[in-house]
User: Fold this.
Amino acid sequence: MNVDTDIVTLTRFILEEQQKYAPTATGELSLLLNSLQFAFKFIAHNIRRAELVNLIGISGTANSTGDVQKKLDVIGDEIFINAMKSSNNVKVLVSEEQEDLIVFEGGGRYAVCTDPIDGSSNIDAGVSVGTIFGIYRLDDSSTGSIRDVLRRGTEMVAAGYTMYGASAHLMLTTGFGVNGFTLDTQLGEFILTQPNLKIPNKKAIYSVNEGNSYYWPDNFKKYIEDLKKPQDELKGKPYSARYIGSMVADIHRTLLYGGIFSYPGDSKSKNGKLRILYECFPMAMLMEQAGGAAVNDKGERILELLPKGIHDKSGIWLGSKGEVDRFLTYL
Ligand code: AHM
Ligand code: MG
Assistant:
């Protein structure tokens, strides 16, 4: 039988990476990443069951104890909060589902920003959704406040997402490139499947909700219109449009195949829809670490933005370096 008996699990990978890049580190970040992977597994498990749970809901019966089923968003949020709290390494948590930040008692030295289940409106159609996260290390003087997370994206020590699709895929960066893991449900482990992932420098795919284009500024309209014209370097073919409407799924495709993804600001929502701390920043860090780029509507580097509130939004354009550079020529 042809069995690989020396696979790299996420736990092994984290420990080896710590040995390699930070041999004197305390191991707290490694422990935190370990708590995170439990949250991903638990959320993946619930998403797999969601359809059945919904069917039960439709037939009018409650679950065995008679409780009304909770929405998956709430379940994801609770799983995340509990996992971070019990890790003892997190002091500050920002969740899309919580208006205010959560400060845990105890000595945690990290802040985590998350969208526990992004794209949840797609779940009933079986479309992939995901958990997005960004991690900051706290200053030694920190007592746990909003200042711990109102920082530039360049200060994050780790970021990533887990996409719950045909399998659960975790894309992780700790600032030394991007590595992809796939959950083996039988083993209950994330296995390293895409070591040192790089995004292609160019790819003729654009991903944006064009239904909003009436409200876009003229240069955004012109840029997208030009992509739809015959391209010399594509032997006269235009770009392809691909838009799932679930950020993690759209970014996952972009990371693997290349192209450009955008959720720009427009005249009805000037900063677009996506949140800086737990949507734009983590995705921007992953893109840059994979060799791509991420900018806002003015062409400024996303990671250098400084949010003023924990739920602030920004227009965003990210993906292959060559495609983002082309967009920049329209500004
Ligand atoms: P959510 O955080 O409420 O799930 O919304 C974010 C999602 C993203 O996953 C996706 O990129 C975007 O909303 C799609 O928005 P739209 O339907 O306006 O295209
Ligand atoms: Mg979201």
In short: The chain has two domains: 10-195, 205-329. The first strand starts at residue 90 and ends at 95. The pocket of AHM (ligand 1) is lined by residues 96, 115, 118-120, 209, 245-247, 263, 273 (CB under 6 Å).
